[in-house]
């Protein structure tokens, strides 16, 4: 066993221990399990929300994009920043309503606001379809990180099994408390590792940040800015806007809103989170540093930039710390996803169709669904192939379709009816599926439009379809309904 | 003073509206390509703006009392 492996295992055991002990002294009913009894202060909520930005995707993908795509990578810090601004306005409203109505999940919110359990079922299904590929991506990332960081002594498959087992155990026992406690270790680790790598590597190989960028600019002129075509300025603006809107629509992120103990928690977080996510900057620096040092990574191998450059540069124990940080970036979001997907299926799907089920039975079912969903995700991780990539590309666009009916429901006079919300979400989801599966872009759909319009993120189309259908459908039935109520009051 | 919340429009203007003008590699500022510096500067400004909003938002104090 080499030094790297010992360190990775030590951190695995530490997080397992923290995850399990988090249960202590709590009566694990569903409210305690899935929303922490609505008692989390600024720090825990902060860490859970920050968990959404520092996933394996950003760890590997952030450096991979910097390595392979250059300038367009910067959209990642831009959309997070704008999402936090939105959160200042949106999250306190969501939280207050959820607290008044004792809600547990994102689907509860829709079901309650629109007074329609069936809408809750629809939202749950959209959520689970988006969450599973997201979890698969975390697991694939976990496998890559641990097998690379252990110098190949642990296979990627073995690493994935070990990671999933640990997460399943502490999620079943401690629920969101487990996620919050492991998030503490994870964020400290990622902070230290990212800042260290992001400063050390550019100075070690180029003598500084600016010399590094100058060298890249000389070798690949224009690579560090947005290109004229493709990922151009209009791509950047539309993508940042779409992802900022979709940010809190992920069911596990939305669910973590409920865990806060007061609305001011979000307002405080909205001040700190923009600056905090600048840690990603250092992850980008690592990817940039790799460009001229290991120039041969093609296609999806670009995601290995951070690990390969670290292995080339450091002793095994440093690589072990990087591997441990990577492992945790997969485990924390992974645990939130497992818990959220189980809660959605138990409370918002099963309970709707068998209303006689007691709260206790629902809570039990949610816990037993955790290993089931874990196994399904494992299946897709090992056998998924290309379908999973397509699903993954869809995930973000799918959850963004929940945004219009959610935001409108926060307004004082919401004109959207439950039929409107239902039809709008379905229309948006079908459009996303069609566009993704057929590989369309605005350019292929409307080739005669100017380049700037062709480069717009294709998700914009789905969102427009969604909004139009929501408005039109909401308009038709309300008239007949209002006639009905007039009659009945007469 | 609820109008203070209108300050939250600024990050959107700066990042989304500013990017067509900031999309260039040079000059380097603080070691970063200009486009990256522009975004980072706005991220920091956003935190400052949110702190100002927080400080003057009447709803924050209302909640602290309860």
How do the strands and helices of this protein lay out in sequence?
The complex is a heterodimer of chains A (490) and B (66).
Chain A: H1 3-21, H2 30-35, H3 42-51, H4 56-68, H5 75-100, H6 106-113, H7 117-149, H8 156-174, H9 176-206, H10 209-219, H11 233-246, H12 251-257, H13 264-276, H14 279-293, H15 305-313, H16 316-353, H17 359-383, H18 386-400, H19 403-410, H20 418-437, H21 442-445, H22 451-454, H23 459-489
Helix pairs in contact in A: 1-8, 1-9, 1-16, 3-9, 3-13, 4-14, 5-11, 5-13, 6-7, 7-8, 7-16, 7-17, 7-18, 7-20, 8-9, 8-16, 8-17, 9-10, 9-14, 9-16, 10-14, 11-18, 12-16, 16-17, 18-20, 20-23
Chain B: H1 9-17, H2 19-22, H3 34-56, H4 58-65
Helix pairs in contact in B: 1-3
InterPro entries (chain A): Na/Glc_symporter_sf, Na/solute_symporter, Sodium:Solute_Symporter
Transmembrane segments (chain A): 6-22, 43-67, 73-95, 116-137, 149-172, 184-203, 233-250, 271-297, 317-345, 365-382, 388-410, 422-446, 458-477
Pfam families (chain A): SSF
Task: List the keywords.
heterodimer; A: 490 residues; mainly alpha; Sodium/glucose cotransporter; 2 domains; 23 helices; disordered C terminus; B: 66 residues; 67% helix; 0% strand; Na/solute_symporter (chain A)
